[in-house]
Amino acid sequence: MSSVRVHRVVEGPEAGPVVVFSSSIGSDHRMWEPQVAPLTERGFRVVRYDTRGHGASPVPPGPYDLADLGGDVLGLLDDLGAERAHFVGLSLGGMTGMWLGAHAADRLASLTLCCTSALLGPPEMWADRARTVRAEGTGAVAEASVGRWVTPGYAQAHPDQVAYLREMVESQPDEGYAGCCEVIERMDLTGDLPKISVPTLVIAGADDPSTPADPHGQAIADGIPGSRLEVVASAAHLGSYEQPEEFTRLILERITEEQ
Ligand SMILES: O=C(O)CCC(=O)CC(=O)O
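Above: the input record for the complex with L4CXMVQC. Below: its predicted structure, written as tokens.
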């Protein structure tokens, strides 16, 4: 499939090193709002985009695969005139990052892989989720998703944020969400990990029920030569949103090392 022109929001100094942020299934570029000011203030060019099938990006009929999602990022970098960029991805965004690391390493300055997995089964669960969303809409999965995105303590203390995140899931196009479920259904990046030569940091949330550090984050860190795993306390699956200070600190550490 040919690449699509993804919706992007670009902030920060034009000449700054480019940092691309890639989102989880069911969210869009807004999930990275907490990272924008800390990075642009330090001179980075922050590029947030909506994965195909999400937010304001095109919604081609699914299924998609990781090569489609990775190709969209390469098209984005070409549009921006960016030869290389730091890449930060969470969950599906991290899977896209691993694909780029294995297939387009020359376009990456570094990789930060948050709350993600190289193999997230069982495949039937993703096929079921795609079927549910095509039949009933993204509203059918919103409450359960947000229940995995933040810890119960955060949810209790921040009901407005929980409502905002739920609305974010509900606003995603049904076909786009389903097409991305089918990416994960068919994904197995385990054989690609040893091929990734880009400097990589893996970050997991200590309370992530979707992609727990053990086994998911640890398997990625074990597989990518020279990478390491950090586990952030009191963070569920959308760790960069729930614990923005610690995730941003780690992201800055990774991208500052490689400038
Ligand atoms: O968040 C993703 O991009 C994929 C994994 C996922 O959907 C986990 C969940 O259901 O919370």
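Notes for the reader.
The pocket of L4CXMVQC is lined by residues 24-25, 91-92, 145, 148, 184, 210, 237 (CB under 6 Å).
The CA atoms of residues 21 and 48 lie 5 Å apart.
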